[in-house]
Amino acid sequence: MCLSNLTFGQSSCPVNIDFELGTFQNWQCYIGNVNDINNVNVINVTPSAPTTNRHVIVPKGTQTDPYGGFSISPPDGSAYCVKLGNDGTGAQAEQMSYTFTVPNQPDYVITYQYAVVLQDPGHPPADQPRFTAKVFDITANSYVTCGSFDYVATAGLPGFIHSKNYASNQVIYKGWTPVSINLNGYQGHQLRLEFTTADCTQGGHFGYAYVDVNNSCSQLITNNIFCTSRPTFTLNGPAGFSQYNWYNADRSKLLGTGVNLTLPTTTPDNTQLLLDLIPFVGFGCNYTVSTTLHSVSMKFRVTNPAQVCEPATIDITNPALTSGSDANLTYTYWQDAAGTIPLTSPQAVSTSGTYYIKASAAAVCFDIQPVNVTILKAPVLNITDPLTVCINTPVDITSAAITSGSSAGLTYTYWQDAAATQPLASPAAIITAGTYYIKATNSNGCVTIKPVNVTNYPVPVLIITNPFAVCFPSMVDITDPAITTGSDPGMVFTYWTDANATSPVPDATKVPQSGTYYIKAINSHGCEVIKPVTVTVNPLPKLVITNPELCFPGRADLTSGPVTSGSSNVAALSYWKDALATVPLVQPQAIADSGVYYIKATSSLGCEIIQPVLVTIHKLPVLNITNPVKVYIPATIDITSPGVTTGSTSGVTYSYWQDSTATSVLPNPSAITQTGLYYIKATNIYGCYTIKPVNVTVATIPNILVPKAFTPTQAENNRLYPFIVGIKSFKSFKIYNHWGVLIFQTDSASPENGWDGMYKGQIQFMDTVTWYAEGYDYAGNLVHKSGNTLLLK
User: Fold this and answer.
1) Rounded Cα distance, 590 and 656, in Å
2) Cα–Cα distance measured from residue 572 to residue 514, given in angstroms and rounded to the nearest whole number
3) What's the pLDDT tens digit per position in 589-619?
4) How many CB atoms lie within 10 A of CB 397?
5) Does pTM surpass 0.90?
6) Residues 6 or more apart whose Cβ sits within 8 Å of residue 352
């Protein structure tokens, strides 16, 4: 169920007023009943969700109404309509409404279509089944009379037919009928469109209807734009009226009397026509609408495209072909002059012939003109590949034997690529095997390009497998047969330091340095090939050791970065107890004992070096703390006094802190004025230190104060409680009346826990009470206070 108050643009209808969302969105549904009250038909409905069999969205289809036999799909082509009510009985009533605001548009119109099926049992009018369609002006609080209709089952309803198949049931029906409501003069008004169905009040006869609302809310007269290239055009008036009278602008001539009017296209542009709309009696008001006619002419020119050569295609959608035509024409492309066989690919026409372009303007004008497409034949080019020759022997592809059998009179050019963009420098003396291209051009300028393959005897096969890398000071033998395994057999190898084989390797069996060297292989035909061989003599890693020193109970981490900082060419480190690296160090990250250990560095290439590392772990200083004697303000405490650290290691340096991590310095450790936990740090010559807490108590002189009077019934001073000064822990607060009876006690000094003047559920007035209070000060002494307080109203 949706209820909405909508405002919309000038040319659009309200959202889903036409049910095209397939739902009741923005519509309000109702259900209820109908009664005859003092011979007046009274329909009572209340809002509801869309109700099964009473508010039904009907999709477009082939179903027909069982009583009237008409299609239940509306004739305007809508995808959905609504069936309101059903052929059940029981004095039921159904309604649906749509609320919207009329835009500022003088020709705004709502058109709906309805079909009604009613039983006509012949009851008094107030008891008969019915269907109503009304428009309520919410702004003016009144119904729009020209848009509100009441169809009560009776034989006199205009346009209704008796059902032949259900004559015994006294069923009458009316097929789909359109109604247009002109809302000129209602701009800015909030309106509500209402449709209602009801059974007879006696409960034995039914009434239901089909309803749809058009999705166009524009002017009432359509098709007022016509094309001058046609003989006639037809104006369409709004459906749903009894009579139509078409006039010229001054009403001097009656032009027609039907819902539509056909005129010749010689009618002058900007001609104004009037249409008088006369509704069926009792179903609307007379009104006049007007329209202005507009003629459309069209200039359409076609220029044939330039001819092309195979395999190129021609795009007849190119705007150049219709240059000189009117702007904003819509073009389609066809194989026949009648425009009945579409051209599948007008952007790529590949066959010569005559095709057709259809131009349309303003949805009313069109013209079809031919366009001639010419695609010239490409020359025939036959290619015979030249014979295979020895490597480095020139090949002539300009020889006539290569193109024998091609079309006569062709001009040949020679290229390195299939697109003929890179000319071949010496086509008569090609020494490199490969695929080249010959381009043949005929007298029409059409070309054919085909490949020609130049082949040589194969180059000797030389396969190089680079030797394994070694670590310095080892050397590499590049004459090892394993390096050329897989090469052609029977070849002679030589070894060089350069790719041109001009500088021989001094001793190819003992190459001492990394680098690229070259092997030249020559086969029995004298063909040769040179390929590189990569020699790798890897350097040892550089291992720099910084011996770690640390304080107990710390543990040395030989894997930490600073221990080997400055090392290079190291891929991995390992840790050992012996210089030969045979006994691994189990926990190199946590060495607890001073001593000599060993680190092995391995490069990414597997080269290794081992060096010792000396670990030194210093002891922590001993720090004994004796807490100073507690004092009262204004006295201070000096924690730098030697008596505080008596028994500690000698020769250490003391520092004083506010926190256990020694990050906040204690400003005046020799004159501490506040109670608290402070910290002393003892550091020896190796930087090892111990931190311990010292407990300082500088207590306030204790006191407990209680007001001399309080007023429990007033907004202020309405509770009696102790004020404590210098009390570390409060013990008790007791109150006795003048007879010595304990009337209140608490172990809390907070105001909310004070005495509120109540004793045994009654407020006490005008009495002097005696109080006792106890607590312990910061020195651990018991403080006891007592006194009297006057209780007032």
Assistant:
1) 31
2) 22
3) 999 999 999 999 999 888 999 999 999 999 9
4) 24
5) no
6) 373, 374, 375
Question: What's the rounded Cα separation, in Å, for the pair 775 and 771?
Answer: 14
Q: How many CB atoms lie within 10 A of CB 691?
A: 16
CA distance readout (Å), 265 to 225, 248, 291, 297, 610: 10, 15, 16, 11, 108
**Whether pLDDT at 388 is above 90:** no
- pLDDT-based confidence at 180, cuts 50/70/90? confident
Is residue 559 pLDDT above 90, yes or no? Answer: yes
Enter the tokens of residue 119: 């039983």
Q: Is the CB of residue 262 less than 8 Å from the CB of residue 242? A: no
Could you give the percent of the chain with pLDDT greater than 70? 96
Q: Is residue 402 within 8 Å of 450, Cβ to Cβ?
A: no
Cα–Cα distance between 592 and 571 in angstroms, integer?
A: 27
Q: Residue 256: phi, psi to the nearest 5?
A: 180, 165
Picking from 682, 679, 676, the residue whose alpha carbon sits closest to that of residue 697 is 676
Q: Are 669 and 640 in contact (CB under 8 A)?
A: yes
Neighbours of 115 (CB within 10 A): 24
Residue 158, pLDDT > 90, answer: no
The sign of the torsion formed by the CA atoms of 112, 115, 119, 124 equals: positive
Distance from C-alpha of 238 to C-alpha of 233, rounded to nearest angstrom: 17
Among 2, 10, 361, 59, residue whose Cα is nearest residue 216 = 10
The amino acid that residue 563 corresponds to is V
